[in-house]
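Retro notes (design track)

What went well: tokenization of the new backbones is finally stable.
What didn't: we kept losing track of which sequence belonged to which structure.
Fix going forward: every design gets posted as structure first, then sequence, in one message. First example under the new rule, 271 residues:
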């Protein structure tokens, strides 16, 4: 018995060690790709293999980044865009999930709205930006609304589909015990759909950024989207690439935060 336990512990330790080794290899390869990409970019720009005016170079982008940090302008642009993105992300996810709950709760409502959801999902929501701005006026509200609209329908469809995929036998068993619809939703449907809802959060991070940046393209005089469109207008592509780099960094941070929350919630559910 003791020998078997010792063997199991040894196998478990080897397995954990193998996982750590593989993870370290992944980080190493990711680091190599990162360094190679920026090194090649810098070399290609330095030797005019690419047009430096159009594609700039990492050294020029970093120089521009330091300049914008020192004069304080980057912080104000970044702060506004982050605020708009986080609000759009939270409201888009919340409204989409609530709409999915309403559709699950009322089969009649689901049948009525189904074709409209399909049509609206197929529609390029970015094209609604000018209409939203005219309707709500140029400002913060129209930019946030733009971010919400891009994510809300996707969230609704994905979460509602997850609600419908639960094994109907679970629901029938609960109904035989006179469980109410609220109880069925709380004890069976929602726990089953929990991983899908968390996955939707990850998708919505990118969608919220897209909606807000497009909104800032159209109407804002501040924010990272404004910096991109301004850089394009004055042919300063170093400014454009710097703004894109900042967006990539903070979008990744948001994504990693959602991943952390996901891991924590799943760990708590399993414990």
């Amino acid at each position: 018995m003791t020998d078997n336990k010792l063997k199991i512990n040894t196998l478990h330790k080897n397995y954990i060690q193998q996982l750590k080794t593989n993870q370290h290899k992944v980080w190493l390869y990711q680091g190599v790709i990162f360094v190679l990409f920026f090194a090649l970019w810098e070399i290609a720009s330095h030797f005019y293999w690419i047009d430096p005016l159009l594609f700039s170079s990492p050294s020029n982008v970093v120089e521009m980044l330091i300049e914008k940090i020192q004069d304080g302008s980057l912080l104000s642009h970044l702060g506004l865009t982050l605020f708009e993105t986080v609000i759009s992300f939270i409201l888009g996810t919340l409204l989409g999930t609530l709409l999915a709950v309403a559709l699950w709760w009322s089969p009649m409502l689901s049948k009525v709205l189904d074709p409209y959801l399909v049509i609206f999902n197929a529609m390029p929501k970015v094209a609604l930006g000018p209409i939203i701005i005219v309707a709500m006026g140029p400002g913060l509200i129209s930019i946030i609304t733009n971010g919400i609209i891009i994510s809300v329908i996707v969230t609704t469809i994905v979460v509602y589909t997850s609600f419908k995929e639960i094994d109907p036998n679970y629901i029938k068993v609960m109904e035989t015990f006179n469980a109410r619809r609220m109880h069925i939703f709380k004890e069976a449907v929602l726990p089953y759909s929990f991983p899908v809802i968390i996955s939707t959060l990850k998708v919505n991070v990118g969608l919220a950024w897209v909606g807000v940046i497009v909104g800032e393209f159209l109407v804002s005089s501040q924010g990272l989207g404004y910096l991109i469109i301004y850089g394009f207008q004055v042919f300063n592509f170093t400014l454009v690439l710097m703004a894109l780099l900042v967006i990539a960094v903070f979008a990744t941070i948001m994504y990693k935060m959602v991943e952390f929350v996901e891991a924590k919630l799943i760990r708590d559910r399993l414990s």
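Added context from the reviewer: The longest helix spans residues 2-46.
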